[in-house]
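Hello again,

I reread your note about wanting to compare the complex against the isolated chains. To keep things tidy I'm splitting this into two emails, and this first one only covers the full assembly. Below are the input lines as submitted, including protein chains and any nucleic acid or small-molecule components. They are followed by the predicted structure of everything together. The single-chain runs will come separately.
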Amino acid sequence: MIDLALLPDGGLGWLHASGPHSQIVLSTRIRLARNVMGHPFSQRATDAERRAVLARVTDAAGASERLRRAVLLRVDELSRPDRQLLHERHLVSKELAALDGEGARPRVGAAVLVDDPGGVMVNEEDHLRMQAMLSGFDLESAYAALESIDSELGRLLPFAFHSEFGYLTSCPTNAGTGLRASVLIHLPGLVLTKEIGKVLQGLTQVGLTFRGLYGEGSEVVGNFFQLSNQTTLGKAEGELLDHLGRIVRQVIEYEEQARDVLLKTAAGTVEDKVWRAYGLLRYARSLSFEETMNLLSGVRLGVGLNLITGLSVYTLNKLLIHTQPAHLAAMEGRQVGDPELPVIRATYVRSLLGAETT
Amino acid sequence: MRCDNCKERDAVINLTQVEHDTKVTLHLCEQCAQEKGIETGTTALKSTLGTFLSAMGKGTNLPVPADTVRCPSCGATLNDFRESGRLGCAHCYQVFAEQLRDLLRRLHGSSQHVGERYVAPGADGESSAASELLELRDQLRRAVENENFERAAELRDQIRVRE
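Full-complex prediction:
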């Protein structure tokens, strides 16, 4: 089993809840898609070609200032539980970790360079998917971290670039800047006041898109939404980030207004709801993942409204990550069957909440 | 077996019909079957493909079928792209520029990149020492893979000097 303690900050620096608006916004993630000239894109490449790409990328990272100390994990050599663990930490995509089918194997040459706050997935859909993830709502710092990695690697490796189409990517939906910025945001107020539909519809009209907790193709659980830019071409990097930033600030405002409305019109109901959620998490003996997420959403709202005090947002963030199946199994140090998981999860949640006084 | 109708060509279709409670089986050649208005395998296929192509907005006046132009670099065709949604390599953007320009406009509202301009190392005439070194290492790896040890030794010496 991989030792996550070896990773810089365990790859979890973004959980610290230290960034701006970290009450409502969990994390900001930006990725840049790049390909190395002279090699077919990952999907069409042979095993030998993908190995060659990996060697070139790791050489370049080793020669760079920013990624010299990054930890290389060969995803293609990891067991399924380890790959799932990395995915649950948002360090690798589902595609790179090949988690779709039961017996699915990652592509030969699939790897990830982990550093805090930035890293690089190698041989995903594109040769390089550079990514930076930060706590709270902080597009500027995330892009600054990423830009320095991008410009350094771009001097060491010839990236595929076209004067009209920009950076060339395996899928045309990413061409141009190759930039996708996502903000993971918690919107229970808008969900409870039933305003969320309007907000999400508005988002798609202004060129943004929303997804679930794990990005593309994932479902919305626990009122967590990932908002990101839809298009990557025809606008400069700064414009794309400004636009997303402006809209996210507006959504944060709507969420705060919705919470005010809840407090003014249904304080008793809301108070009851958040304490019930806390009570279940604090004392239940068996919890499914989905139930945990929904209850955590309630407790998070309670903390945000100052109805529940003495409980840190960091603890809630930690619960979000560590109650996932592969994390629970890693904590137990053994393979855990599906029937056991809810009991182990509830035990862990109890112990963490019991350590903080409310 | 000969065709029951023209008695000349080989029968390829067995047509079973029920007339007045008796089952009659006719053995027909493709031509006679078509004349009788029976849809054979090939005619059915042609019409499906026709609707498919026109549904793709290309119709039958497509100058060249989507699978005849191959990217000389990776061998991918436009059909490969339509099936997988992924292009084969960077060169595909050159080869299929016309079709991609349309698609990019529909996806992004524009096909013109206005973001950061990128110049690949070495493309501006002077390559950095670091990228040269990486290039040499890449060549060395290939030489070893191809068991070209003489070239590998040369490259190793060049790398040593630079390091």
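For quick reference: DSSP finds eleven helices and ten strands in chain A.

B.
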